[in-house]
């Protein structure tokens, strides 16, 4: 049975990649798009000719689609997600900008409604698997450090994925004493400290987006590395989300948690 | 409740490391050792003073221990494992040399007897996790190659772990077409071909034992690497096996399958 | 003093990158372009308004430029290089397709004429430095293996740069005995053998163009790695060639030999 | 012609490795040893039977050896080096602890006496070549960061070799503007800052001693990595020093400067 998809933000770069992806999947069909600025001409945006284009949430009938893919803006993502959850549509959210409090509220709503959904800060499968594996490895290797490497134009550090990885490791590793008596003869050289997990951010021209997690144990080491060369890579994760989201019974945060 | 351990091959290098490990674990106790050559002086081998030392299988009472750790020889491992399985002791086998047919027979016996046990060709946690993660990643990244690197004295290639990894990937990845029209202008340069997964073996002085699995997808890459610097690393895997083996209901092959 | 540059093949992708590069360098000036197909409208191709456009070699006056940059085609590169060498212009050749015999003849002409020039199969500075360093390291580490990794669409293996690197190592390393008694249980797993140096070619989607040289010695290892993410990287090598070519007294093969 | 070697500190671990090395080299001969504590029994320390053993500097005749290898203590290395330089013996100093001022004074003495010599903080050839190559690459890739990785017991950071590498890069790279407007949302995450070169120190169990230098440029990257698995690796550098030291005309700091 074909699943019906609504794409919020279908005119943007990620939205258009999603349009192309869903069009290529035999078991999915685009039935609608949401955009406050789009013309009412579906084919201009490579949507099926009979897809409906909506300008605002209040125009959208409940249950018009099975899945709501969202690549919109930080200012609209909260309202969009809430609307989907309360109108029988499973949200798959790639838009960033939700606060922790908003996420918790949305999860609570989803549990009450028994409505499936997914919020994924990162749809790159290599990054998602890195996080999943790091979380598992931490059970056996409590000693871990993270090195992330990005192009020189990325001005903030650490990357969101590196910080998420550190959080997952911290949550999963056994109680662990860290070295109390280290000496830095050059300030900062041991990196940033997230609950005992050191994070190192490299910024160099030429690089794109890369992350390594290094685990060390008695006489051995384990390293997990991912390289993102191109945002096209996100679409493999969106595909996985489309295929898996309706097996959930509430809103899940993180693609790594539904693999 | 303290679990009772018998160590077969307690006089060897790995056996002695196991003795030290079990002595350090509060929830485990060495009650016996098996060795055709040892003197009957437990403390000489760092065993508890009241541990029993047996010379041959027929001297060992059924149920004397909960767990049988085996670091013996290829010629005795089959009889030892069978004895443990049929005398109510869960075998944890680090000895190599069992044939595929012998393994199958032992598994069948374990299922009939509902007897837990584990055969682990590799107890290094970094190698074990690499295999586990490679197996999972293959579902999302069907394109994979393996590079293993060992010291120059290792004359055979590929390594057993590399081949095991390739088998796990082959079994788990989706149906996948591989490039039919490659041209090698230097024979062998594309590596060994295990069901479409290329394996590359590097042999260099200085290196110890290392393996990388490279996955490539649309615009991204994922790499899992493990480094073994020292056989001491095996003991972390033995510890995991001791803790988990009695949760099984039959003989399992591969530590990665009980994590 | 400003140096005058002629660009052969200025309409192509690499030619246009070269136009942009030379326009950005204060000490260099484009005075002419060679193209059998271009319109006689310099500004259309971002050339200075007074640059001359030539359709064929015989139209070009001797000495019109100091340097001849060539990104043309395999069928014209030999004639172009010979013309430059014999008309007082230092060729900087990025076009591939010259045979070994043609290269030798051109070098001989350059020596007779005492004419500077450079043929560079690879202008990527990371690849060029990798080759230079590998050549130096081989004096101290005779044991080396090469791993090159390219996108899955590259059907031939090994890459030209990998083979060039192996040749440089073979020429520079001390007399060296290699293991005679290796056993491949999977055919090809030890890679391609260039005079005792093993080359391994990885082909995976997502990857772009990467090469590693691994050296191993007593208790230590040295690895040199380069990653090419974008052909834009070639322009840093062209800039180096422009700056250094007139310090030569004959035609040199390989940018790594003039650093 | 056989060169005569005196080994200061021949009873220590590195001293004994040096004894074994020199004994294995046909063109070198141990003629003397210096140790305040050794017995006067050369063969006990694997010295040739006719080697002389001295307790203190004042007992050593001028010119007794061509080369003075020193693996002693921080408190004696200055006097030893000065003695060698002023008594016609080329010092090869592996002992650490000389201050910058002492090094400068010793170099000045060597120039006045035209006496060859070498001070090498690190004799590992992989580390030495890494420093040499990093210094060369910096001319073409001014953007560089350093990651060094050591076992968890190393309490100080960064490593001496990492800092030396940063100094060499800073000295050799062209004038270079670094990002002024970076934001660290986790303090220290961008590493230690040595004149614009970021250094990151990883400390994990299992690791031994490793360093990477990462260079990034337009569309490409170059990485140089060295791994020290065993102090045995130092002997390859001592051998190079023995072979090259007498070609110098003064005291040189750093093995990388005589390759």
TrEMBL record, chains A, B, C, D:
PANTHER family tied to this protein: 4-HYDROXY-TETRAHYDRODIPICOLINATE REDUCTASE 1, CHLOROPLASTIC-RELATED, DIHYDRODIPICOLINATE REDUCTASE
Organism placement in taxonomy: Bacteria, Bacillati, Bacillota, Bacilli, Lactobacillales
Compartments reported by the entry: Cytoplasm
Homology family: Belongs to the DapB family.
Molecular function as annotated in GO: 4-hydroxy-tetrahydrodipicolinate reductase; NAD binding; NADP binding; oxidoreductase activity, acting on CH or CH2 groups, NAD or NADP as acceptor
Keyword hit for Cytoplasm: yes
Catalytic residues as annotated in Swiss-Prot or TrEMBL: 150 (proton donor/acceptor), 154 (proton donor)
Stated role: Catalyzes the conversion of 4-hydroxy-tetrahydrodipicolinate (HTPA) to tetrahydrodipicolinate.
All copies of domain Dihydrodipicolinate reductase C-terminal, residue ranges: 127-259
Entry keywords, A to Z: Amino-acid biosynthesis, Cytoplasm, Diaminopimelate biosynthesis, Lysine biosynthesis, NAD, NADP, Oxidoreductase
One of the GO biological process terms: lysine biosynthetic process via diaminopimelate
InterPro entries, A to Z: DapB_C, DapB_N, DapB_N_CS, DHDPR_bac, NAD(P)-bd_dom_sf
NCBIfam families on file: dapB (TIGR00036)
Subunit note: Homotetramer.
Designated gene of the protein: dapB
Enzyme Commission code: 1.17.1.8
Name by which UniProt lists this protein: 4-hydroxy-tetrahydrodipicolinate reductase
Pathway involvement of the protein, from the record: Amino-acid biosynthesis; L-lysine biosynthesis via DAP pathway; (S)-tetrahydrodipicolinate from L-aspartate: step 4/4
Residue ranges of coiled coil: none
């Amino acid at each position: 049975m074909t699943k019906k998809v609504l794409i919020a933000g279908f005119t943007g770069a990620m939205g258009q990649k999603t349009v192309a992806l869903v069009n290529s999947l035999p078991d999915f069909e685009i039935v609608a798009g949401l955009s406050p600025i789009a013309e009412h001409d579906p084919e201009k945006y490579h949507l099926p000719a009979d897809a409906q284009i909506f300008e605002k949430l209040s125009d959208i009938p409940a249950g018009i689609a099975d899945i709501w893919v969202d690549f919109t803006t930080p200012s609209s993502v909260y309202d969009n997600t809430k609307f989907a959850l309360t109108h029988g549509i499973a949200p798959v959210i790639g838009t960033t900008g939700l606060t922790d409090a908003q996420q918790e509220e949305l999860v609570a709503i989803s549990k009450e409604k028994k409505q499936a959904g997914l919020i994924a800060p990162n749809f790159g499968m290599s990054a998602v698997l890195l996080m999943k594996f790091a979380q598992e490895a931490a059970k056996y290797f409590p000693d871990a450090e993270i090195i992330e490497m990005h192009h020189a134009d990325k001005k903030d550090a650490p990357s969101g994925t590196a910080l998420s990885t550190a959080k997952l490791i911290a949550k999963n590793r056994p109680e662990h004493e860290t070295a109390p008596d280290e000496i830095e003869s050059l300030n900062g050289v041991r990196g940033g400290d997230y609950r005992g997990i050191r994070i190192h951010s490299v910024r160099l021209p030429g690089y794109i987006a890369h992350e390594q997690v290094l685990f060390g144990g008695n006489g051995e080491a384990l390293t997990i590395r991912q390289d993102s060369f191109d945002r096209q890579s996100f679409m493999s994760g969106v595909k996985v989300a489309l295929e898996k989201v309706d097996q959930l019974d509430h809103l899940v945060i993180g693609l790594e948690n539904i693999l």
